[in-house]
Amino acid sequence: MRSAALQFCPEFLAVESNQTRVLDFIRTCDAELLVLPELCFTGYFFHDSEQLRSVAEATNGPSVTLLRDVARSRKVIIVAGIAERAGENVYNSAVTVLPDGSVDVYRKTHLFAEEKILFTPGDSGFRVRDFGSWRLGVMICYDWRFPEAARTLALKGAHIIAHPSDLVAAPELWQPAMRVRSLENRVFTITANRTGRETRGLDELIFHGCSQIVAPSGKVLVEAGREDEGWIYAEIDPTAADRKAFSQWNDIMTDRRPDLYEL
Question: Would you give per-residue pLDDT tens digits along the chain (263 residues)?
Fold first, then answer.
């Protein structure tokens, strides 16, 4: 399977412009699984909840409709971060759009910094989508800090974890951590991080890029630079993530002792 992560700099609040850019990027992508950054249509550094609500969309809104149309026409799976409006709530979400146009939604479990006052805490739980010969899980950005997130997806059978992100943490922190998430669960991880800067008054956020695709061994298959824009690609065999044993004696799943992990 050819997998890809998109790294680019969304324009803050410029939803239509970002839709056009994302569509142009997807049209040039030669892969079966495409992972896009967190909040890729809206930007990230919102001034207040009113500004966020002005660009949030339902999962049948224009941005997801665009993804559904292109997923159907190109027969690809797309994972993309959106600001999801659901009634009175706004979630930091990731949609998984399938070639038949259907949509799964993951709502970010661990909210970072001021996200706690802007977004509703995610209530979806960690989901795994079964595609027959392989299974896909999703987590978003700050979820990387919590080993329970990736472990839950792995225990539910995920071969690949898609990780849309707007990471402001230094790559020297999160890149090795995501390699460990792959290694300790023996799964592929695909982190699609954005690049660029956003300002709010005198405050500034810098997004450090460095998107990466990591094998179950913890080996980095491909990574982007800090300011690169475009796709990174890796050919992967999802069934490699079925092999949880690393010697004749040890298997990272069957060696677990959950009866002793109780607090």
Answer: 999 999 999 999 999 999 999 999 999 999 999 999 999 999 999 999 999 999 999 999 999 999 999 999 999 999 999 999 999 999 999 999 999 999 999 999 999 999 999 999 999 999 999 999 999 999 999 999 999 999 999 999 999 999 999 999 999 999 999 999 999 999 999 999 999 999 998 899 999 999 999 999 999 999 999 999 999 999 999 999 999 999 999 999 999 999 999 88
What pTM was estimated for this model as a whole? 0.97
Cα–Cα distance measured from residue 212 to residue 223, given in angstroms and rounded to the nearest whole number: 4
Active-site position among 29, 57, 84, 108: 108
Is-catalytic flag, 141?
yes
Catalytic residue among 141, 198, 210, 223: 141
116 in catalytic set: no
User: Residue 38 catalytic?
Assistant: yes
d(CA 112, CA 57): 21
Catalytic residue among 9, 38, 40, 57: 38
